[in-house]
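Q: Hi! First time asking for a complex rather than a single chain. Here are the components, and I think there are two in total. Is that enough to go on?
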Amino acid sequence: MKQAKQSIERLTGRPASGGFAAGRPRIVRNRADLHKVATGDVLVAPETDIAFVPAMQRAAAIITETGGRFCHAAVWARENQKPTILQVDGATSALDGVQHVSIDADAGTIEWEV
Amino acid sequence: MNSRQSMNQDIQTFRTRPPARHDGYDDESSLTARKFPLSYEALGILDSIERHVQRSELAFGRQNIQRFMSSVPGSLFDQHIADYRHIIRARDWPNEKRPTSIQTFIQEYVRAAAIYVDVAFDALAYLNGSSDVPLEFIFHRAEASEALRGQFGKRATFGIDARIEYCAEQTADALIDLFPEDDVEGLLVVIGTPNLPHQTAETRLLEDFHAYVKGSRAGTLYDDDAARSHDERTWRILRRHARWSANEFSSMLRQLDQDELNHQYDRCRHQQYDQIETRQELIRRIARFGDSCRAFDALKNADALIALNYLNLALEPSFSFKGAPGLLHLMTFEAGARRGLDVGSDADQIQRNKWTLFKSYNKEEHKQ
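A: Yes, that's all I need. Here is the structure of the assembled complex.
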């Protein structure tokens, strides 16, 4: 029986805090979306603020579309050893509906099968 | 006493009281404090701003504050930061180019931060109905206060973000002369993640809640009345992280995974000490270059980088536009908008008002 060939999609960004993680991406565009992030999910947001901290705590990894190497998300992630990638253009739209991603936060890559 | 015990004692000293400059720092493990006076001073700055907020809370009355905050709609808390960002980004604020020394910048930044807190309490008095100043007065005062905050903030040419980037570049330039080029970015990250005692507000949130949970009597953890108590363990969280709102406090507590909170605290403490040792070792390596100008430049700029980064990451979320003072500024702007007042509409007036506010600051009232 032939199996459909699966392709791998990839996004890249700036590594902020290294490590590997995998999980379901949850798009957080505002505070009302925070409750969607379960333990082990991957938090994906345009940017973060202090209200995000409980969700960041639960998440296996964090992806943001903005932020420099010393932004809140980056420094917090290093303090707390959370794999994090910044400046991932279009992450919130590209990962919307994706079921599972693999993250290499040392290389700054997010991959998923389609 | 070995170096880890000595370092642990240094950390404990930082955490339990405002550090006095050069307070017993003579041995190898305290090299950071001797080489890094600005970042050492930054700890005391945050403490002094927090004590200023505490004094203002007690003067206003904590019950009065909680009563007022419980009347603020939850939607305003939800939208606060997004709405405030919109106000900041949708207008051309008059920022002057002010290329001062780092030391002067820090003094002025902190002055603007203290003024922002003062104006927030003026706004609270107006919004609470306990002040009879006209709306136009408090509106323009809040507008000037925001303009002053912005003068030293993210979007200003010589504001804190620009200063941080400059210090990072200068540190990197100096490190390239001392270490392999491929290592420099990693070294910069080590320096820029100073961890204890210069933690981010976000990590302090987890630590403060960990302390709160640990100290709570069994069965009372989710008791709503606990968030309305007046003990300092509760108020530390209300002041720093929950914008004085018992509902915000309870909401955050419920969202936090308790097991993860305990495990993360233990795991992170261990990681934090490792990171601190890594940083200490880096500083020793740089210092071994002795009288090299580049070593001096690296340490001087690293010191400034840690100090500025700490103020940006710890002071801003708790006591600036993202914290309770910011929420009160926003509420004042919205009250003005309902009467036809437009924030940022008269740049010349804002410019005059902000420097008048800056000059009128009474430092004596804010001494430790």
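A: The longest helix of chain B spans residues 258-287. Let me know if you'd like any chain examined more closely.
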